[in-house]
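just leaving the lab so this will be short. what follows is a protein written twice so to speak, once as letters and once as structure tokens for the fold. can you read through it and tell me how you think this chain folds. anything you notice is useful, everything is just below:
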Amino acid sequence: MSPGRNASQTGNNPLLHNKLMSPRLNSKIIRRDNLLARLDEGLSRKLTVVTAPTGFGKTTLVSMWITSRPFASAWVTLDQNDNDVNRFWTYVVSAMRTLDSSIGKETLSTLMTSQPLNVETLLTPLINDLARLNETWVLVFEDFHFITNSDIIAGVSFLIQHLPAFLHLLLITRSAPDLPLSLLRVREDLVEVGMAELRFDQSETETFLQTSTPVELSPSATRQLFQKTEGWAAGLRLVALSLQDKGKATEVENLVNSFSGRDRHVADYLIEEVFNSQPEAIQLFLLKTCFFNRLTGSLCDAISDATNSAIRLEQLERDNLFLMQLEQRQNKIWYRYNPMFAEAIQGLARQQLGENAIQSLFEKASSWYEYQDLFDEAVETALTARLFDRAIALIEKFIDINDLSEMNTLGRWLENIPQQTILLHPTICFTFAQVILYSTDRFAPATATRIEPFLSAAESVWRTNGDYEVLGQLLSFRGNVQWWQGNFLQAFEYARQSLNELSEHNVFWRGNSLLIISYESINAGRIREAQDYVLEARALLGAAQNIFGVLAAIQMLSEIFFWQGELEQAEHLNRQILIDAVGDISMLDDQGIASLALAQLAYEKNDLEQAEQLTRRALDLSQQRANETLQVQASIRLANIHAVKGYQFVAHELLKTLEAKIQNPTLLREIQNARALFSIRSNEISTLDWWVKMISAEDQAILPLKRESEIFTLARMQIAKRKIDDAINLLQGWHKDAVQNGRVRSQIEALCIEALAYHANSNPVKAIQLLSEALTIGQAMGFRRLFLDEGMPMAVLLQTALSRLPNRTLNLFASTLLHSFSPTVITPVAATNSPVQVEALSPQELRVLRLLVAGLSNADISRELIVSNNTIKTHVKSIYRKLNVNSRDEAREIARELRLL
């Protein structure tokens, strides 16, 4: 079980729309028809990747292509801040909606919540929308090299895999993306354009220099520059800019001779030379604006305390000064500097302006972004300027709008703020604690240690100020922290405290605390009380739209049904969890717990193969999530299955190895109880004095339901030691408690053990009376292994009781149980005098019985199973004999009574 984070509906964070604008082409570009044709080839493939370092004209080439072609295109420019699943896909969907506003409505709606984002669930509606396209669209991701988030990469891979026929994806990147490129190559679904193809050849170099320089270069100078730049477009452009004020042939010759295109450091020199040739006002403008990714007139006015920035930007773009214009949107014209040029000017700015002046620039930019409701950019610029108090104030506004929907972004921001500053702000402390818990290993003790200073600081302030509502939220969250640490008693105490502080309308946190209280009631054995709590918790968490909490509530409800003997309802709920628990990686815990619960249900029905398969899945998930509780419980279940199949040594070694590496005392005690039970069933009770001494010691931390399990094990040991009265006395109180609190499963188990005690004490009348009661409940509820796990003593008791059970149904149920014991148990029992022949239905006979009960004729059954009609007749005759019936109706009745199907 895992109570989850708050996932309430959130607002819509405004987008920076210039990220969705493709660059406008300069009039002096060199048309590259061979590369344009290469990109055209990609339209018949799923993916095109244009890969090269900066300055090779990747963006210019793609811009030229989409401008010169008739198809529609959407553009997303990425940066390092887009490594947040919610943010990335919001921009992608918004880009496509610029072409058709009917696209992606459902996906965008999902993105506007802080619900977990599963790739398939998120993108399937979008892909379905795009499948309706009947004309070519191209989606461009510029600067894809900034994307490192594995969940985003997985989403893009899923999109590529299911890309509709009329949509084509193009990536502009400095390095090869971590996508299944080799598979796409094999399937001929990929077109690649690399650095070698992007280099200018000599002819293109000559054309570029002729159109870009005011002086005429000699053929030898042109050849020399081509050789030195190796076709590097940015290097040629730097040369062209440097030649703008060179009128003398000697100046041109000196520059050509001194230029080394292979040395990237020459870029700094040449850009500085370009910079120094500008008027002082332009120089100052460049110094003040070079730190910002995207520029528009009003932003530059705010940064530079000017009123004519729009004119300046237009002039710089016209002069081809490494500034390119983006598309015009929302009455603003946006620009961006070439990254190489910006980096070089930034170095000059730090030298000439000083850090204080640069910090002031970022502060002004942050204020401008805030005024425009662009909180992401406002926070980023405040953090860059180390304006931490301002950043915190902005983050608080961001949380009000988005809650925890962009957890990776929040975590990155808060990691960059000194802890002593955060500790002065209780709301930020509480937020950071939640981000840490839900984005790291919640089971690790180090996680709780890291969270504690923030929770203590917030709690101290809120207690002092009497802010009891938020204090209640914090206490409920503390319950979550302790829950995942396995400190359940502390979790229960925090949950109870929180309920005293929270108002009735606080549906999420009250639901969260009630969920923890539900778990307390379950483990106290108060099943009916737990059911009341968990139903209320599920209703509240559903109202809060919290899928994590709802899943945890369903898990607990399934456990309640299991204890009540409602096995079919428990199975239905756990299968629903497997369907719904997708998306957030923490939901692997829910999947693992549901898989183990289904394994337990399969085990109770004696379907050992299914039980083992589900248990191994739960064990794999527990290891993926480092979920120690799930790992221990799954390992114990797997050991039980091994033992039942006759592999006692494997079961023993599995638990021995597990015990050696578990440190949690509660889990260690659970393993030791399982080992003690194996020893008792193997008649190795002489080595269990240590265990008896351990469980006899007072331990307030042991949960009552775990204590019941130990008592039942101890009672079995007392029977094995012939201390029958001690065993019966141990069971009496627990049997009564199970009946009073609705623990049907415990009631059956107590009855079975008590019946075995009386049988061992040569009191068959009392033993059969208790066994009859256990069989009556077990048969009605579908329990099998509760009887079978008692091994030879139970087989002997069932054999003894067969002729003395009160009705035919119980007689047949007991006989069926005898069928199901392993050969090592049943062979000596079957050899004794018995009024009932002990013989199980074969797997094929069970298949025939299932079809027979469904009403199929022998001929229909033979066609269904692809065997002869005579074979079916033989199977039916054998079934009648084994069930001691003479007709289909009787067989149908017995099969249903005994739950054979």
Confidence is low (pLDDT under 50) at residues 7-12, 261-265, 831-838. The radius of gyration is 37 Å.
